[in-house]
Design brief:
Elements lengths: L19 H8 L6 E3 L2 E7 L3 H18 L4 E5 L3 E6 L9 H17 L2
């Protein structure tokens, strides 16, 4: 099933993070995202600081709809780093990959 069309599942007790193999199998659906220090990360470049703030707000709305939240940072006023990692489970879960796919789909509509 296509990740972008899936819905995040609520947190569950005892859920384990995905294995490296499971991540590799699903990562083909989010090719713009990299793996760094066990986290799924993508950098977006905007025109200016206010565009960065607008992008963060849009991603926050998507995250709220799915109740799954990223780490986000703005650097050099126009670089927005979005990082997915499920702290509760100590690794990347399917929800992280679903959200990466949803953010990528949204970014394509904004030409980011």
């Amino acid at each position: 099933m296509e990740l972008a069309s899936m819905t995040c599942t609520p947190d569950q007790e005892g859920l384990a993070p995905l294995t490296r193999r499971e991540i590799a199998d699903l990562k083909s659906q989010v090719p713009d995202w990299g793996l760094r220090e066990g986290r799924l990360i993508r950098r977006f470049e905007t025109a200016n600081f206010m565009d960065s703030i607008e992008l963060v707000t849009d991603i926050a709305r998507i995250a709220k709809e799915q109740e799954h939240y990223p780490d986000i940072r703005i650097t050099e006023y126009r670089h927005v780093d979005v990082i997915w990692y499920s702290y509760r489970y100590g690794g990347i879960t399917q929800n992280d990959l679903i959200m990466a796919a949803k953010v990528s789909a949204f970014a394509r509509t904004r030409s980011l």
